[in-house]
Input
Amino acid sequence: MRAKYIIDFKYRAVWRQKMRQKMRPVMRQIMPEKMRAKYVGDPKYRMTHQQKMRQKMRARYTGDTKFRAAHQRKMLIVKGVKRTNSQLQRRTDPVAAFTQHIQEGPIYTCVSCHRHLYRQTVVKLNLLRYKPDSRQLLSTMLAAFNSEKDDQLYICRTCQSYVRRNKVPC
Output
């Protein structure tokens, strides 16, 4: 039988096909567990697998326009972002995107440097996000910043980085 397997190519092909069909249900249960264990346990294998998948996805993303469109839709769903066609169209038109981006104007005032900034350069001020030392620094800034209780306060990203390091912003 072994000699026939080695010599006869047709017999070998039929034998392999039979074994694949016989072992397919077993392998579908065993192989994912083995591969998962190998992926988790072997960092070298994990790195090579990640690199292979990265290359494969880049090649597929650049070569197949249908795949790219499907992937972009999937990523929008994953991120929880719902965009209309007009918003997607604005992404392709840079002038319209810029106009949309600055439409509100610089109406947000930083509590620290008192500059009027655009929405994308400020964050809402939440004292709970800061360390106690930074909170004390912010409370002195807020005392100097005359605002009403109902106003939403903002801090620019530059001043925020200084406050987080417990330094006084310029």
User: Anything to note?
Assistant: The mean pLDDT is 82. The two ends are 86 Å apart (CA to CA).
